UniProtKB/TrEMBL annotation:
SUPFAM superfamilies linked: Cytochrome c oxidase subunit I-like
Superkingdom: Bacteria
GO cellular component: membrane
GO BP term (any one): electron transport coupled proton transport
Transmembrane segments: 35-57, 152-174, 203-220, 232-253, 265-285, 297-322, 334-356, 363-384, 396-422, 434-456, 476-495, 507-529, 555-580
Domain Cytochrome oxidase subunit I profile: 147-606
Protein known as: Cytochrome oxidase subunit I
InterPro entries cross-referenced by the UniProt entry: Cyt_c_oxase-like_su1_dom, Cyt_c_oxase-like_su1_sf, Cyt_C_Oxase_1
């Protein structure tokens, strides 16, 4: 045993010596594995954007050709009207002779018997009206859900839409203050007070409300039963909105829990959100417990786990114990990263496992990959919060564990991304038909790129280079916006038209998609480049003010990208109003939510 321990120590000693080297220079920084990996990931996003543009241009060209064909038909009709009677008689006579002609039957074949010796032919037909491959058309159906469930989903998403526009308006205002700091001098509009208003509003008001609202439909649908208590759902709606309203008033008044990012709301206010989470968890759990089918669908695993983890997280984050000195730093890293990964990311992935296959009318590619992604997410994500404090006074071994587990996150990320992309396989034509699949595709790509970039950034050199710079702001928007927001929008456009029977204009949905995507890309690229220059400036020990002035042009591009994102959110709000404003009575209805004792089967993807 002693010899084994000695051998392990000898093998690990070079790694430990290298790992604890704190001499950092900017020499050959571009050759760092984390930097190279990040550049490759950003290239993937660019390629996907180009492919989506190609598909949409192809669809536009097809529509243009169809329009030209219709114009030619119209022109031909007008030509016929202009013909004289004698000319028409000559054309009809020629046509009559053509109709009397018949084929012999041997023009394209022979009397030789057809034999398929190698078994290559799978299907033969001589009926031109029965093609070998029938392309699925988009079905315009209104799902027959209970009025209570429809109302819950609409009101949750309505509140989420309001908080999205409000929260990102605050964010755009703050972005302008970077290059126009003297635009106002009112205390409650200062950057220090409004920045947490922006983050907490989009966290708890927009993302959380949208997730729970979409989750209510998933829980009912995949359990094939009614929601356990609609009263609990309304209590949760009131409490979450009350949390955001009171929390923002307190923040703008200078009353905050100043110890940590994303937990600026004081505990008497945040406890309302915790109560809402507990009520939602009970409601979801009871609904799943009284399901009328045997299996628990993978979406419910993710959703219930997200609620359970976040209740625990809220308690730990706000307990007064261990909230002093470095203990508070450890808790802050745990709370901040677990909030993003175990609440927003885990819950949203649960939604994707339902809405993606449902929108494509096909099963999820692999249930086993979903289970692998779930359990590895539970394993690795809980230990990576400390990678925000590399080179801090925290124990070196704790930092190393966070880095190792950050690399372990590639397992659930690759499993989940593979599952989503393989589910989309064979359905790429949907990109040219609607924007539901493009939203899902961008979300899936950013899930891989944003999560992978976070793992690369956990490396010691890249952490030293990028952390505490504007690069970290770009990373947070890659994840919370590129992944969570795009997945939520995809789910919204997949289900809301079916709940109300009202489709939004595709031109507005397209404007929402492109303004959000291009805005996000310009936002994150500008901050990534500027953040890298700022980090290099710090490493070279140049004056701090130099790192501030060099960011000026990048902050302008940040505001430009933020403006496009805000406009996309306003367009999204308009689309929401269009969808819920009226419900046509002649839209076909498809059954969905059932009573407790019904044996109605679900879609084939459960």
């Amino acid at each position: 045993m002693k010899s084994l321990l000695l051998l392990c120590s000898l093998l690990l000693s070079p790694l430990l010596i290298v790992a604890q080297s704190t001499t950092v220079t900017t020499d050959q920084w571009l050759l760092s594995p984390g930097v190279i990996g990040t550049l490759i990931l950003i290239g993937i996003v660019l390629i996907v954007g180009i492919l989506i543009v190609f598909y949409r241009i192809d669809a536009f060209v097809h529509q243009l050709r169809k329009k030209n064909s219709q114009e030619k038909d119209t022109e031909f009709t007008q030509t016929l009207y202009s013909l004289k009677t004698q000319e028409i008689d000559e054309i009809l006579e020629a046509r009559k002779k053509a109709l009397s002609y018949s084929l012999t039957g041997a023009e394209l074949g022979s009397e030789v018997e057809v034999m398929d010796k190698k078994g290559l032919v799978g299907k033969v037909t001589d009926n031109p009206n029965n093609p070998l491959f029938d392309e699925k058309q988009q079905a315009k159906l209104r799902l027959d859900v209970s009025p209570e469930l429809r109302k819950i989903v609409i009101w949750y998403l309505g509140a989420a839409t309001f908080w999205l526009v409000f929260g990102t308006s605050i964010g755009q205002y703050l972005g302008m203050k970077f290059f126009w700091p003297d635009m106002e001098s009112i205390s409650w509009l200062g950057f220090g007070r409004l920045r947490p208003v922006h983050t907490n509003t989009v966290f708890w008001g927009w993302s959380s409300m949208a997730m729970i609202g979409l989750g209510y439909f998933v829980i009912a649908r995949t359990s094939n039963t009614r929601i356990f208590s609609y009263k609990m759902a309304w209590y949760g709606w009131v409490l979450i909105n009350l949390t955001v309203v009171l929390g923002n008033i307190a923040l703008m008044s200078g009353v905050n829990n100043g110890g940590g990012e994303y937990r600026e709301y004081i505990w008497p206010i945040m406890i309302l959100f915790m109560i809402a989470l507990i009520l939602t968890f009970i409601n979801f759990y009871k609904t799943v417990a009284r399901r009328t089918i045997k299996d628990i669908y993978i979406s419910n695993w993710f959703i219930l786990a997200a609620l359970g983890w976040t209740i625990i997280l809220s308690v730990i984050g706000y307990l007064p114990f261990f909230q002093n000195g470095l203990g508070e730093t450890v808790i802050q890293g745990y709370y901040m990263h677990m909030g993003v990964g175990m609440w927003f990311m885990t819950f949203t992935l649960g939604l994707v496992y339902y809405y993606l296959p449902a929108s494509l009318n096909k099963p999820i590619y692999s249930y086993s990959l979903g289970v692998l992604a779930f359990w590895t997410q539970m394993l690795f994500y809980t230990m990576i919060g400390t990678h925000h404090f590399v080179f801090s006074p925290l124990p070196w071994w704790l930092q190393t564990i966070a880095i190792v587990f950050s690399m372990g996150m590639f397992i659930p990320v690759i499993a989940g991304t593979t599952n989503f992309l393989m589910t989309m396989r064979g359905s790429w034509s949907h990109i040219s038909k609607s924007y539901v699949l493009p939203f899902f595709l961008v979300g899936a790509i950013f899930y891989f790129v944003g999560s992978g970039q976070g793992s690369f950034q956990a490396f010691r050199f890249t952490n030293f280079l990028w952390h505490f710079t504007d690069f970290n702001v770009a990373h947070s928007h890659m994840t919370m916006y590129g992944i969570v927001a795009f997945f939520l929008w995809a789910s919204f456009y997949a289900i809301m038209p079916k709940l109300t029977g009202k489709e939004p204009p595709q031109i507005l949905v397209g404007a929402h998609f492109w303004m959000a995507f291009v805005g996000l890309f310009s936002y994150m690229i500008s901050l990534m480049v500027g953040g890298t220059e700022k980090g290099l400036s710090w490493i070279d020990n140049r004056p701090f003010i130099e790192s501030v002035t060099l960011m000026a042009p990048y902050w302008v591009w940040r505001a430009v990208g933020g403006s496009m994102m805000l406009i996309s959110h306003i367009i999204f709000a308009i689309n929401f109003i269009i969808i819920v404003r009226a419900r046509p009575s002649n839209t076909p209805i498809a059954p969905t939510e059932t009573s407790d004792n019904s044996n109605t089967k679900l879609y084939g993807h459960v």
